[in-house]
Amino acid sequence: MSDQHHARAKQLIAQERVEGISQAERDWLGTHLQECTNCATHAQETEQALRSLHTAAIPLPAGLASRTQFRVQLRLQEMREREPKRRALWAACAVSWVFGIASAPYVWRLFQWFGERTGVPKVVWQLGFGLWWTIPALFVLIVLLMEKVRQGGEPDWLRQSK
Amino acid sequence: MSDDAKSIARGLQKRDPDLLDRLIEQYQYRLFRYLVYITGNKERAEDFFQETWIRVLERGHQYDGKSKFEAWLFAIARHLVIDWQRSKKAQSLDSLTDPEQENPLQFGNEKEPSPLHQVLSHETQENVQASLSQIPAIYREVLVLRFQEELQIEEMAGVLSVPLSTVKSRLYRGLEALRGVLQGGAA
Fold first, then answer.
1. Tally of domains in chain B
2. Among all residues of chain A, which has the CA nearest to that of B110?
3. What is the pLDDT of residues B118-140, one digit of tens each?
4. Which CATH number do you get for residue B29?
5. Which of A13, A28, A129, B171 has its CA 20 to 30 A from that of B160?
6. CA–CA separation, A8 vs A21, rounded Å?
């Protein structure tokens, strides 16, 4: 029997456990293992090594689950307490935005009137109007950035695996 | 995916406290064992265990029940460990983020009979764990996921965020490393 046969047998022994092998390969391996004591021992050792891994027990620290449950419940409570505040913040943003849009024509006129009264260049009061109107959007952006910083970004690995 | 995964996803979306308690109970052993194997330290594993469940609470809405819950859980635990390793800047040989070494897998010399089978019959669980601790973490991890947690290779690829081919290559190397350390223990 050539070295190639033994190498193939050992490869199939590992492959069978890792990703599976075809029926033809299984038949070939079975025949080879009946004829080759070394490869049969190799297969047996691999099986025993995996069995020992499978049955290896690790003692759980006392009260691990209850301590964790307690911490999780505390965190949950904390999150629930913070939720109304966050909702109020978003509601305030929404209201301010709606109000901004509704009042835009009046504010435009107000800026125009003020510009004419003070004699500032047209572009300046128009810029002032633009800035005033973007305040809610900037506010939302700041809130979003703060949230992102607080959470440390959204790691890819937290998304569902394929 | 099963109805169970869907109901877990619904419960996590609602941050159902009873569901969380039940999941902590149900998965405590598997998660803790996984963490012990990837960190190599029981105290640290305990800290990560608690942090993992806090993350499950905070990010539970991201689990949609299309994959196994345990695969998602292990992915969270794993990345907490990786983040911690990065923050420590510990580029140790045992790091989970070590690059794969693409040397061809070497099978042992078949002409040299090993005393492994004699040893295994006397091997205590402690010895198995001691042997496992000698295997690089990236291989130890795949062995645990495949042969203890019985995850499919595709699920493992999701947990580890690596291609299927990398999972397979790590498994072959891990298997060989496991045999190697057990043989070494016998010598």
1. 2
2. A38
3. 444 444 556 667 777 788 888 98
4. 1.10.1740.10
5. A13
6. 12
